Every structure is written in structure tokens, then in C-alpha cells.
């Protein structure tokens, strides 16, 4: 009997050690962003279209005129696509007095859950209190959903807000540097509110043309425009699945994965054209010609990779572009290269607007990708 008990204790101890190791291995990554959000979710279930309301009180004490906050709500559907979404970016909270804010939206039979919370941007003090969620019932009346710690009465320690989580994406477990959460006695009711402080937040990028001091003005402007468009492409594709990247709408369409490769290949071509006044070598053609042409070869060959594979190639090409452009000045932009009679400035303007053109194509294709079919597994029959 004693031996059996000892063995059971050993098994329990091993299981505990396993769980501890698993938890410790799931390190929370620290990242730099100019914003952070906090969230929680509730399940949704209905056979007909219904309404919901998310309500909360908030205020902002800003360090500069860039700081703003908002409450937000997002409906996640069963097909892994997003339904209703609103984060108040078009009507941000910027005033320093407590006010109540409301988001109204809808969900339907395809809806799986409602995610909601708050968002804070840039440096400042962001206060939140008294979150409430109402769901429409069969009678068309709004019922209050019971939410634990919706008023932040549980004191916050070590950035841990009970029943809420922080991050910037439902797909990424990360802590955003510079933002800290604590309890505040500046509240609407009860003992506490949630206070998120953003300190020394450096914008990831600004909505200006040109930002690199020491570079010629036209070169500086071109780099910032190229980078802004690449960032927009990345934001659209970085979370797409391999199925979505490979999806082909018809025999004349392009896969989104191949379009990213095409952007990299076209930029590579204009590198050798403007920086070296030549075309692709035979060795370079083996790497770049298929994605550059983007014809049937691109449809057949460029597939089967995840988003990061394509973005790594795109980023490597862009790093070379920026390195070489910074070696040059505005006078170089005016020079006409011999191959086609284009000025260097015109060539890089074309690379910039080429990104914009294919970004529009990616957006068009992405919105029309059907849900991935469920895989059917056939069980092997055992013959007698």
C-alpha cells in the first residue's frame, strides 16, 4: 500500500513539474508599439440577427496632443472571419472628464463570440471604469450580461487585471513596452478604476513624408513612401493562412503569395536597373524571373509557403533598396539611366505606385476568399 501511495505521489509531482515547465516555456514576448488594448470575450449564440451594446466610462489625461483612447468591440465568426468591429478610432476619447461611451453592433447565427475592451494610444494616462454588455433577447429587450470585475474593483498588482488580458492581437501573446496597468482611486463609482499609463511611447511611424535626417530631401521622401506602402501590404497579409495565400479564384487570377513575391522581384529589378544600369543576369533570372513575370509560371510554382516566408524575402530586398538609396542624393534622382531612358526618380516612383496597385489587388482578392473547406477523414474499414 505504501509503495502504491509513493508511486501516486511521484506521478502527481511529475505532472506538476510538467505543468510548471509548460507555463514557464510560454514566455510573454515584449514588443514596441504605440498602442495597447485590453480585452475579454463572451460566447454568442443565436439563430437570428440580434443587437448588442458595449458601454463603459473613460477619460484621458494626455502628455501630448497625440494621446487618445477608446472602447472597442469585435464579433468573431465561426468561419474564423471577423464580423462587426468598432474601436472608436473615428471618434477618439481625448477629454479629461469622465464620460460614458457606447458601441452598438449586431451578431447572427454565424457569430461565435464577442470580444470587447479598451484601447490606448501614445503617452498619457488612460482611465476606464464600469464596463457593461447588453445582448438582445427573444423579446427584443436588452439583457445585462453578468461580468466579473467589469468595474475593476479587484486591486491590480504587477499589471495583472483579473479576468482581462492585454496585447495587440488575438493571435499574439505580448506585453507592449511602456504601458503599465494599475488601480486608481480616480473612479466613477466603487473604490477603483483601471489606469493605464503610457510613458515615452515612440510612434512606430508617423503620417509624414520624410523622416531620416541627413538624407537628401527627395531620397528621404521616397524611402518613407516606399516603407509606408510596404507596411500596409504586410498588415494585410501577415496573418493570412497558407490556404488563403494560395487560393486561386480562377485561371487568370493571381495567388496573394505570388503577388508578394512579385513586389519583391519588381523591386529587385529596379535595384539592378538604377544602381547598376543593367538587367537581370542569367543567375538572377533563375531566382526572380518567374515572380517578376507573374504569368502561368507564377501560378504554378509560387505556392505552399506561409506569409513570413514571402515577407522575409520582401524585407531583405527592401533593406538593400534603403541601403543603396541612402548612398545617393537628389542629383542622382535626376540622372537618366541608359537602358530605357527613364530617370532614376521616375523608376522609384514606379516601384512605389506599383506597390499601391498590387495592394489594391490583394485587398480585392482577400475579401473574396471563401472559408477553407473542412478536411474529411475517412476511417479505414477493418475487413473480416
UniProtKB/TrEMBL annotation:
List, alphabetically, the Pfam families matched.
Answer: MST
Q: Which organism is it from?
A: Flavobacterium jumunjinense
Descriptive protein name: DinB family protein
Listed SUPFAM superfamilies: DinB/YfiT-like putative metalloenzymes
Tree of life domain: Bacteria
Amino acid at each position: 500500500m505504501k509503495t502504491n501511495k509513493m508511486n501516486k505521489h511521484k506521478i502527481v509531482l511529475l505532472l506538476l513539474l510538467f505543468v510548471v515547465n509548460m507555463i514557464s516555456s510560454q514566455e510573454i514576448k515584449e514588443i514596441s508599439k504605440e498602442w495597447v488594448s485590453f480585452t475579454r470575450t463572451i460566447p454568442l449564440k443565436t439563430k437570428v440577427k440580434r443587437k448588442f451594446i458595449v458601454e463603459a466610462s473613460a477619460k484621458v489625461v494626455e502628455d501630448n496632443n497625440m494621446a487618445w483612447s477608446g472602447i472597442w468591440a469585435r464579433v468573431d465568426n465561426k468561419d474564423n472571419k471577423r464580423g462587426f468591429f468598432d474601436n472608436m478610432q473615428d471618434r477618439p476619447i481625448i477629454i479629461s472628464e469622465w464620460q460614458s461611451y457606447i458601441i452598438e453592433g449586431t451578431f447572427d447565427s454565424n457569430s461565435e463570440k464577442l470580444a470587447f475592451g479598451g484601447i490606448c494610444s501614445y503617452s498619457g494616462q488612460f482611465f476606464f471604469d464600469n464596463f457593461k454588455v447588453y445582448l438582445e433577447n427573444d423579446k427584443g429587450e436588452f439583457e445585462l450580461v453578468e461580468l466579473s470585475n467589469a468595474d475593476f474593483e479587484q486591486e491590480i498588482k504587477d499589471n495583472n487585471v483579473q479576468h482581462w488580458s492585454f496585447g495587440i492581437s488575438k493571435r499574439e501573446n505580448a506585453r507592449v513596452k511602456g504601458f503599465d496597468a494599475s488601480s486608481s482611486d480616480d473612479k466613477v463609482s466603487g473604490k477603483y478604476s483601471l489606469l493605464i499609463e503610457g510613458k515615452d511611447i515612440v510612434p512606430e511611424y508617423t503620417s509624414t513624408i520624410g523622416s531620416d535626417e541627413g538624407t537628401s530631401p527627395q531620397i528621404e521622401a521616397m524611402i518613407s513612401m516606399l516603407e509606408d506602402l510596404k507596411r500596409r501590404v504586410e498588415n494585410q497579409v501577415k496573418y493570412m493562412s497558407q490556404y488563403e495565400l494560395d487560393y486561386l479564384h480562377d485561371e487568370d487570377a493571381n495567388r496573394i503569395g505570388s503577388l508578394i513575391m512579385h513586389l519583391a522581384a519588381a523591386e529587385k529589378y529596379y535595384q539592378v536597373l538604377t544602381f547598376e544600369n543593367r538587367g537581370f543576369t542569367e543567375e538572377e533570372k533563375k531566382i526572380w524571373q518567374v515572380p517578376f513575370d507573374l504569368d502561368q509560371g507564377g501560378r504554378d510554382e509560387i505556392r505552399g509557403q506561409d506569409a513570413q516566408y514571402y515577407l522575409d524575402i520582401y524585407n531583405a530586398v527592401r533593406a538593400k533598396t534603403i541601403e543603396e538609396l541612402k548612398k545617393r542624393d537628389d542629383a542622382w534622382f535626376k540622372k537618366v539611366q541608359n537602358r530605357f531612358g527613364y530617370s532614376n526618380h521616375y523608376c522609384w516612383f514606379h516601384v512605389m505606385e506599383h506597390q499601391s496597385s498590387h495592394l489594391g489587388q490583394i485587398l480585392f482578392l482577400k475579401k473574396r476568399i471563401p472559408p477553407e473547406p473542412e478536411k474529411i477523414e475517412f476511417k479505414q474499414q477493418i475487413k473480416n
